[in-house]
Amino acid sequence: MNQGAACKQVIENTEKFIVNTYSRPALVLSHGKGSYLYDTDGKEYLDFTAGIAVVGLGHSHPAVAAAVADQSTKLVHCSNLYHNEWAPKLAQKIVSATLESYPQGTQGIYAKDDSGSDATARVFFSNSGTEANEGALKFALRHRFVHRRFHGRSMGALSVTANPKYQKPFTPLIPGVQTVKFNETRELGAFIDERTCGVIVEPIQGEGGIHPAQVDFLRALRRRCDQVGALLIFDEIQCGLGRSGKMWAHQLYPEDCSPDIVANIMKVGDHGTTFGGNPLACRVGCVFLKHISTAGEVLEQELTKVLAPFIGNVVVEMRGIGLLRGVQFRSDPSKIVDIARDNGLMLVAAGGNSVRLVPPLNISIADIKKGAAILGECVKQANLA
Which helix (H) or strand (E) holds 62? Predict the structure, then answer.
């Protein structure tokens, strides 16, 4: 069977045996190396999707591969019925890296236990952003629901995703959820009151088109949550873990914009996860935290250079920070995404006629320049004016 026939067979089997929840191009990826992906026909693609901001160290990273290979011969999964050595190691690294970014002697990010007093920051491991948000909502309810954009596809996460496209097929959702406009402070007093358990917000919206929160907006959220005793939850599934240039995107903001860390609220049996915190994933996580590096300023400079001729015409604006960038177009950019793929550049669309650029965090400067140059040429070819 030739490569083209093999590709066709995979696609036919996918359509035949897998629930169709995604619209995918007619290609089959076979492997990757660094910032590049390869399909079964041998075509090379510069990957500016990184698994939708997931593959932080690119593809086939040697340290990750070595950790997976070694750990897979020892212990892959044992459930959370038992301790494993890697989960607490990763949790300690995450907590330490988070707290180290705050000045000594200051309150830093908030840590509250069941009585409202300070507590040690803790980590809950989950398998996806949806699962993490579902847990955060339960934590907020346990501590004693409000916001916008995309937080996940479970019933709880859908309830706080103010987008009819995702919500309508699955109504009725969880009652009592209200949404307010992003970066709008005038409505906060009316929507967040003593009945509010928690407020969930993305400091930099990802799926919605890469919209950073304004300082005054996050500060007002923090202040209002403190006034009514609600928890402030930040969804950093896309903008966290080094993508913004900081460990967490909220660390780019003043300290009085910080979210809550919830500890000692949940009791044994209140929540759980089957695969979260498994030793294989946690060992890889430890490797990842040792290798985080970003080149966001270079990406911004290159995008500004290649897209400058189109600003105000085809391109509405460029947004984002670090290696989380969005380009908003005046019309549907799906044609640009298709042309870019044909030219060997993988991109991912976002809301508001936007394209996301989320390359691996360790991408080389040369590949950043190459990707930006391809995008510029693709905008020319698309002729969207």
Answer: helix 62-72
H or E segment and range at residue 46? strand 44-47
Nearest to 64 by CA among 293, 346, 290: 290
Query: What are the residue ranges in the chain where pLDDT is below 50?
Result: 105-118, 145-160, 167, 170, 172
Q: What are the structural domains, with CATH classification, of the chain?
A: 3-60+293-382 (3.90.1150.10), 109-277 (3.40.640.10)
Backbone angles phi, psi at 35, to 5 degrees: -90, 15
pTM: 0.83
Tokens (6 digits) for 25: 């191009």
Q: Please, which residues have CB within 8 angstroms of residue 20's CB and are 6 or more apart in sequence?
A: none
pLDDT of residue 37: 97
Position 147 scores a pLDDT of 46
Q: Percentage helix, strand, coil, to 5, in the chain?
A: 40, 15, 45
Given CA atoms 104, 106, 112, 115 in this order, what sign does their dihedral have?
positive
Side chain identity at residue 264, one-letter code: N
Nearest-angstrom CA–CA distance, 243 and 322: 6
